[in-house]
């Protein structure tokens, strides 16, 4: 997203999963990239003529395609890649990040999920972040540190969380400081919901808007999963801090405003694209949620045309795009 115009991420639609176009040998497709961290070696499930990581990646890609209602060849025609990054593995369980990239320089948008997987009866069962299956697999595994595992599983369980207009979330810069809201509520590209705002200026530091577990999706894109049924995304970051599940506090430094497009899309003018996600819809696998009527950083956001709208605070006033906004915290 430009500081004043569009770019990267996107919403996961809140509808039942569509069926994808059938594809075979997904892990071997030219537009599938598999990375396995050294902490995730010795995966189970090596098949006849297929490496264990390919068997897992095939299951992850299959779930991603089902959720998006697409086929791997369709994504290839759109110049989109699927990345499967296996971050952790323990026994018959695995954890990582799945990304569908956007064409670099385009007004399209990438998608990303954490995933948890369990090897059962000779096959991998995969849950994408935001589904009950993700929470269930993660909670019952030996993956991650116990406190992190339990917190993330509970915070992303659509059967156990409820969201509200008062989010308990601040803004992506230090409490008690100003940055410029260069883009009012907008979607990822031009679509709904209008879940995101752009900020620039100030000291240019990007900080966690609430405490939680922080995951680097790629170098320049961080997701912080909070303890209240929400998470926040921060895209286009430079001077980046890699965070593989760190428990961070409010105000933790994530990077600086930049133009990174590590998963594709475009950006013009250094800024942070700040987006709100929620986990209370069991069909949406961690959906981006409209800012309209929600309060963050002490300001209640109102959408208009994409990148327009405004935010207001009773007794203080109204901030329109191009105006400086003070972070009051929660």
The first-level CATH class name of the largest domain:
Mainly Beta
Helix vs. strand class: mainly beta
Helicity level: 10-25%
The strand count comes to 21
Percent of residues in β-strands: 25-35%
Characterization of this structure:
InterPro entries: Dup_hybrid_motif, M23ase_b-sheet_dom. This is Peptidase M23. Residues 1-18 form the signal peptide. Residues 219-280 form the M23ase beta-sheet core domain. Keywords: Signal. Strands 7, 8, 10, 11, 12, 13, 15, 16 and 21 form a nine-stranded antiparallel sheet that branches. 12% of the residues lie in helices and 34% in strands. The protein has four helices and 21 strands. It has two domains: 26-155, no CATH class; 166-326, Distorted Sandwich (Glucose Permease (Domain IIA)). With 330 residues, it is mainly beta. 56% of the residues are buried. The two termini are 26 Å apart. The protein has helices at residues 52-68, 72-77, 132-139, 146-155; strands spanning 32-36, 82-90, 93-100, 111-120, 123-128, 166-169, 178-186, 196-200, 205-207, 212-218, 221-225, 230-235, 244-248, 253-256, 272-278, 287-288, 295-296, 299-302, 310-313, 317-319, 323-326. It is globular and about 65 Å long.
